[in-house]
Amino acid sequence: MGCTQAKIRQDSTADNEINKKSTDSNDCLKANHEFERRPSANSKTKSHLVKFTLTKEEKLIIQKYWESTVLVQIPDLFLRTMLNSIKESPKLLDVINCRMGDPNIAELSEWPKLKCMAKGNCNFFTKQIVENHLEESLVRKDSEVLGAIHIQYSPYGFKPTFLDIWHSNILKLIKEEVKFDCENNQEKFLNAFTKLAHFLITILIVEYEDHMKSVRLHDREVSRSQNDGIIPCTGEF
Asked: Disordered: where is this region (predicted)?
């Protein structure tokens, strides 16, 4: 869930005209590469306690079928997962759109922001499976960054439960629509992919909550500093 919001909506009044700068191309670029950013200097958080339980056999089964079977049969897997998740929980649309109102498109599936978010998610998973070979240290390192990235959506109602909805929808699509060479391999893939997605989501949630604590602490410190600096109004000039 990694395409960053890059639009600024300014207040519209009789004296001010709307100045909205669209940066869809930059959004897509960030969606594809945002996960390459490095975590904050806080070296170890609670997420390092989350166990990576994929076995060698499970890694191989994911690598074998991910690109050649799953993405070939459902190339828009992540877009459809997002659409189904929004249908199940409409509030998710407000989060993605940062409460800027209707995305003004006839079909939600053609919304550029949603499409590039889906592309970014697909690239992230493919990187872990193909490029990182599902090596725990690499997968963990990339996953830790996602929590901080999702902080930007907290003012718009983002909740970790949205990730559970997303998780169930992607598994449902794979289970119902992807044809494997045998039923046994389908079951093996689903079990392994469930483990992988659960690990990624758990890391994201733990990192998100950890960063949110830092944000709230910072906000309290700023508020306290501002209050300490207030000069009482006496009514005199």
From this structure: 1-25
